[in-house]
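Collaboration report, partner site 2.

Our partner group contributed sequences for two proteins of shared interest, and the home lab folded both. The records are reproduced in the order in which they were received, starting with the first partner submission.
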Amino acid sequence: MGKRRVKKKIDKQTAASSPVPNVDAAYDPQVVDGEVPIIDQEVERQCAAIRAIRDVEIEHLRTRIRLLRSYFSEEHLQTPALQFFKENLPNVSVVKVDDSGLFELQWNDKKYSLSINNVADGTDLHASLYRWQE
């Protein structure tokens, strides 16, 4: 076994004369000689990581939009959205949501309505599509 360290003895007079340190002062980050506290460095690192992820997601979204636009001809891009839905998706209607100015697409016939989590046989949509491909 290793040797134990001996506790330092403190004189009663020295202990009584020294002020009790403020507990909050131990957690108060202070800049000493131009050094940034460790907590601030960690926060800055996390913020930089979040900004980097956001930038990558934005660039990924832009790439997907460019790819999607490449599938359409110039004539398709000039066609108004409502006209496009009426011509190409006759079972879908465009419905205005309240006064917010937003629109939703809804099936005209309820028996064709699909939900991502609930298909007619009780499975989810992804599983049924996977089964259809096999």
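Second partner submission, folded after the first:
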Amino acid sequence: MSLLVRLIGLPRWVQVLGGIGLLLAAAGIWLHFHDRGVIREHERKIEAAAAAAREQAGDERVHDAAANAKREGDMHHAIDTAAPGGALSPAARALACERLRQHGRTPAACRSDRGD
């Protein structure tokens, strides 16, 4: 190539700058492809770690669902087997009504307490 440039008659400093430019362009192209490979490898590692975390989360959801179902069954069993209760004391009734109000519910039995 330098023979071709010399035949054209370019000065030596233009040839040197052209060669440096070609080297920089080649280094830039190499760096682009190298970086792309590094990024892909990093993303692959992240995905592998995420897959393991998703697997663990799935196992935990299954375990939690079974535990929640057992707790709900225990609660229903306790309600079904509880002895019939009598009337609530005024303090217990007021507490129950206040709890219901905090959750946005005001049944008819609670409306007479505060004039709701």
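Feedback sent to the partner group on the second submission included the following. The chain is about 85% helix and 0% strand. The chain has two domains: 2-82, 88-116.
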